[in-house]
Design a protein that fits this description.
The chain has one domain (2-70). The protein is built from 3 helices and no strands. It has helices at 2-14, 20-33, 43-70. The longest helix is centred in the C-terminal third of the chain and has 28 residues, at 43-70. It is elongated, with a radius of gyration of 17 Å. The termini are far apart.
Length: 74
């Protein structure tokens, strides 16, 4: 459902934004080369690039807490 939601929200104007490492190069090239208003605003950068970076940092703490709190240490 997440992939479908991302595809429906950003798929039409700028392609599926799933992997920031794969998607950043073509997006940067399109912004520099000029694509006739496709990259107006910051939606093309915030959701596929900044969002996963912030989500990874925010998700690391609960994951680390869950693993260390409930794992058996030898």
């Amino acid at each position: 459902m997440l992939v479908l939601g991302i595809g429906l929200s950003l798929g039409g104007p700028s392609g599926y934004a799933i992997n920031p490492a794969r998607d950043f190069g073509p997006r940067l090239f399109g912004a520099v080369a000029g694509t006739g208003g496709l990259f107006d605003g910051s939606y093309w950068l915030v959701a596929p690039i900044v969002g996963p970076l912030i989500g990874g940092v925010i998700g690391a703490k609960p994951y680390d807490f869950g693993i260390t709190a409930f794992s058996s240490q030898k």
